[in-house]
Design goal:
CATH class of the domain at 5-68 and 99-169 and 265-346: Alpha Beta
Structural class: alpha/beta
Largest sheet: 7 strands, mixed
Strand content: 25-35%
Shape: globular
Number of strands: 19
CATH superfamily of the domain at 5-68 and 99-169 and 265-346: FAD/NAD(P)-binding domain
């Protein structure tokens, strides 16, 4: 059998992995569950560790043209008073943090691949090990046969469930709305995240006259009432928050609001299973509190390609990948979980104590913590 690689999942992790592998001479097939790639979704921030990875893949310039560099960001209380400053990434090599619409990111990634490499409408249901590798099964009744499987199909991956049945998805205790608003009149330039008794509200200008925003609120899991919320309910909830929170919500069309509960994957003991490897959210889905979910998936792609380039036997390369990624991604998942719990406090006494403590911490401490997250081993 020809030496073949199948990437299951055509999101950020899968497409970036296909690009990284292509640069070392491996033309992997990408199997995406969605029937087509549509220009949907909200915004995303690619921190400088992700931009470092994309620079290694030759995509830095294309992405900076499609997005907007992020300046200094601030954590505020609900009255608009500063709790902490998060300085923009400033390094000698000029890397930036970038805000970009997910659809624009996908467009840049897809442009790097041969259209024949990417097949849509292929939702996986399972796999079977064979003498030569794997048979991959899809919901539409078709199959694909190959030597190696790279599983990048997200937190609900059927293939991970088969390889590691004990893996556990956790509800974080809060739900989230994400939206894209028109910024042509608001002209907001600052990136911020507000912590208050009614939840959090984040604002990120992403260029092209748009703002990406998110809002979180403590709630029971799968709450149908929260799912039904639109601009009016969000306005009522955040009515006491500082400007321009209300104006951002008012500038958002109902169809541009997405809702979902916040979940993650409890850290799992392994990513590599012989000639099968888990990457991205299939391996280490995290809550979004550190903005590192996609960034860690992008790091995965570069490390995976480096491992395959240095260790031509895939099962050895996958094991090396696991050893390089397990501790780092576990640390991100756990730190993000803890940060989210603190940020979602509602008790007034605890909130006042938290806010006072954050104001006392020097910005250099936050910057040092950021540097630890942004520093990668490639």
């Amino acid at each position: 059998m020809k030496n073949t690689f199948h990437i299951v999942g055509g999101g950020i992790a899968g497409l970036t992995a296909a690009i990284a592998l292509r640069r070392i001479g491996i033309e992997a097939m990408v199997w995406e569950a969605a029937p087509e790639f549509k220009p949907v979704g909200a915004g995303i921030t690619l921190a400088s560790n992700a931009m470092n990875a994309y620079r290694k893949l030759g995509l830095y310039d294309a992405l900076t043209e499609a997005g907007r560099p992020v300046g200094d960001a601030h954590i505020l209380d609900f009255r608009g008073r500063k709790l902490a400053g998060l300085p923009a990434r400033s390094t000698e090599d000029g890397l930036c943090n970038l805000a970009i619409h997910r659809a624009a990111l996908h467009a840049v990634l897809l442009a790097q691949l041969n259209p024949e490499q990417v097949k849509t409408g292929k939702r996986s249901t399972g796999y079977a090990e064979t003498v030569d590798g794997y048979t991959l099964y899809f919901e539409d009744g078709t199959q694909a046969v190959g030597n190696h499987l790279i599983v990048a199909e997200g937190i609900h991956s059927p293939l991970r469930k088969q390889a590691l049945p004990a893996a556990r998805i956790r509800y974080a205790g809060y739900t989230c709305w994400r939206g894209i608003a028109d910024n042509s009149r608001l002209k907001i330039e600052d990136t911020s995240e507000t912590w208050g008794p009614q939840g959090r509200f984040g604002i990120v200008p992403i260029g092209n006259g748009q703002i990406y925003w998110f809002a979180t609120k403590n709630s029971p899991e799968n709450n149908p009432g929260m799912k039904a919320w639109g601009p009016q309910e969000l306005l009522a909830n955040f009515r006491n928050y500082h400007a321009p929170v209300a104006k951002v919500i008012e500038a958002t069309l109902p169809d541009n609001i997405l809702w979902n509960d916040i979940i993650d994957l409890a850290p799992i003991p392994r990513f590599a299973f012989g000639n099968l490897v888990l990457i991205g959210d299939a391996a280490h889905a995290t809550t979004p509190n550190m903005g590192q979910g996609a960034c860690q998936a992008i790091e995965d792609a570069v490390v995976l390609a480096q491992s395959l380039e240095n260790y031509p036997v895939a099962r050895e390369a996958f094991s090396v990948f696991e050893s390089r990624r397990l501790k780092r991604t576990h640390g991100i998942v756990n730190q993000s979980w803890r940060l989210g719990r603190i940020a979602q406090w509602e008790n007034p006494v605890l909130c006042r104590a938290r806010n006072a403590l954050f104001r006392m911490i020097p910005e250099s401490v936050f910057q040092k913590q950021q540097e630890q997250v942004y520093t990668v081993d490639f």
